[in-house]
Design a protein that fits this description.
Layout lengths: L2 H10 L9 E5 L3 H6 L5 H21 L4 E8 L7 H24 L3 E5 L7 H14 L6 E8 L1 H10 L6 H12 L9 E4 L18 E4 L9 H12 L10 H4 L1
Parallel strand pairs: 1-2, 1-5, 2-4, 3-4, 5-6
The chain binds 3-methylbut-3-enyl trihydrogen diphosphate (2 copies) and magnesium ion.
Organism: Eiseniibacteriota bacterium
Function: Catalyzes the condensation of isopentenyl diphosphate (IPP) with allylic pyrophosphates generating different type of terpenoids.
Keywords: Magnesium, Metal-binding, Transferase
Length: about 250
């Protein structure tokens, strides 16, 4: 029996891994989506917000506990001022428009990243959305805005030496916002690039990686379902041996 047949057998006998608890997404490809249609980049970002709404609904349905979305990196300030300004307005509008639906769906929203460089109206919208959804016991939605994985690690280490990885992870959560820094199970990047671009570096130490060529505005619940079922077919070893090799 060859290897792939025996793997299929074990899948058919129901030996599938559970669904990922924490899914993180690098939502890339808005600009290229727009360019392919002869539209301004901001039109891609607007359509990207629609894809966010779909992904949040789908994640809750799939039983994912935490969904972390990379919306704006610390390095994205390098973009032309009008694109940056447009994105910041879009985030504010998204938060205001979506909060009632998030509350209804019992989603708890947190925003990760630096706040001090955000315009005051966006900062207020972030606080209002976090306050309104604080009681949500369903999906924990974390949106990373002005976030840098390396700066988050630096910020956590500035709080003094940590005695353990778990202790450091708690600090990291405090330093970067968005609550405790739980490990990422499944990391998805759309847009066809194969890199982390300074996202959740510590938290992704053993994340399963999925790179999808679909541009973010075209990302549908089916893409998320495919990534989740692919995840459930993988064997995570965390440095140990595979079940087959160990037996
Ligand atoms: C991701 O899409 C959104 C942000 C980084 C804000 P991009 O804007 O990076 O889209 P591409 O990669 O240029 O297509
Ligand atoms: C990563 O995408 C950041 C977000 C999706 C918010 P970028 O488009 O900024 O990444 P690079 O520049 O291609 O690495
Ligand atoms: Mg990009």
């Amino acid at each position: 029996m060859n290897r792939s047949t025996s793997e299929n057998d074990s899948l058919e006998s129901g030996a599938r891994a559970p669904a990922p608890r924490h899914v993180a997404i690098i939502m890339d490809g808005n600009g290229r989506w727009a360019r392919a249609r002869g539209l301004p980049r901001l039109a891609g970002h607007r359509e990207g917000a629609v894809a966010v709404r779909r992904a949040v609904e789908a994640a809750a349905r799939l039983g994912i506990r935490t969904l972390t979305l990379f919306a704006f990196s610390g390095d994205n300030w390098k973009r032309p001022p009008d694109e940056v300004a447009g994105l910041l307005v879009l985030f504010r509008r998204y938060l205001a428009a979506e909060t009632p639906a998030l509350v209804r769906r019992r989603v708890r929203l947190s925003v990760m990243g630096r706040r001090d460089r955000l315009p005051a109206p966006l900062r207020r919208a972030v606080s209002a959305a976090e306050r309104a959804t604080a009681g949500g016991r369903g999906l924990h939605l974390r949106i990373a805005i002005d976030y840098s994985g390396r700066d988050a690690i630096l910020g956590a280490s500035r709080r003094g030496p940590a005695r353990s990885r778990a202790g450091f992870a708690r600090r990291l959560g405090l330093a970067s916002g968005g609550g405790a820094a739980s490990d990422v199970d499944l990391l998805i990047r759309t847009g066809g690039e194969h890199r982390l671009s300074d996202f959740l570096l510590w938290e992704s130490a053993y994340a399963e990686l999925t790179f999808a060529s679909v541009m973010w505005p075209d990302f549908t619940p089916e893409h998320l379902e495919t990534a989740v079922s692919d995840f459930r077919r993988r064997e995570r070893r965390f440095g140990g041996l595979s079940k087959r090799a160990a037996s």
